[in-house]
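Reply to thread "Modeling small-molecule complexes from scratch"

Following up on the discussion above, here's a worked example others can learn from. I took a protein sequence and the SMILES for adenosine-5'-diphosphate and predicted the complex. Inputs first:
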Amino acid sequence: MPDNVLEVSGLHRAYGDVRAVDDVSFTLPAGGSLGIVGESGSGKTTTARIVVGLERADAGEVLVHGRDRTGRGRGRAQRLARAREVQMVFQDPYLSLDPRTSVEAVLRETLRLHFPGRDHAARIRELLDQVGLGTRAADALPRQLSGGQRQRVAIARALAVEPAVLVLDEAVAALDVSVQAQILNLLADIREQTPVGYLFITHDLGVVRCVTDDVIVMRHGAIVESGRTAEVLAAPRHPYTRLLLESVPRPGWDPGGIAAARRALR
Ligand SMILES: Nc1ncnc2c1ncn2[C@@H]1O[C@H](COP(=O)(O)OP(=O)(O)O)[C@@H](O)[C@H]1O
Ligand SMILES: [Mg+2]
């Protein structure tokens, strides 16, 4: 049996009559990268929020390293332990970064919370280096940074706790295509250098092609297709997946465009 870091089984979540998540199951191998793709409203964010622990499920299980995340307590130590298992990066890091806190202070706060009583200067330099931010960025406030740089800070903060899983919900959706390619490159490099695995949520099949090994396709809360990313994209079995592949989510969209831009940056 493969060593799965994340096992999700039978997730359900309804909001009134809306079945936001309808019997969703998947696994993520340790250090792997799984894409969840689907149109807006298909239940991707709700699934992500349940995995992270920001939302409760009506039914189902989320296991990390074989241990149930939902059954454990609400105490401070247990909350911190859960946060060290799974971290999340959102679409707009501006909303999750305190406007008055410098990059260095953001990282120091997180490190102090999770690893108290240590000197964090070297680790902060290492994290900045890992996400391609120079030490000059350390003193910057969020508004002094570009969208791509802010997303790098959000990634550094998430990596600071050495999570087993990083959940990225439309993490590059707000960025220009060239900046998207830089961030996708960075995420690919980080996965090579660290044991972290990705749950990569996007409406964009071009993004899925770049950074995931496996993919699940969601529609109306349910999984309609799943498999190796290259195989699903080359020969989609479900009509909905074919529709997603043929549709044009934004002007000038080209499913190979981001992959080509990524290769060109290498
Ligand atoms: N807090 C909520 N209250 C009511 N309905 C919600 C809530 N969150 C999500 N939904 C509904 O659940 C469905 C799935 O939403 P979501 O998980 O955000 O999809 P996606 O991320 O794929 O766009 C949608 O119909 C959405 O309107
Ligand atoms: Mg969403």
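What I'd highlight from this example: The chain has a mean pLDDT of 90. The radius of gyration is 18 Å. Questions welcome below.
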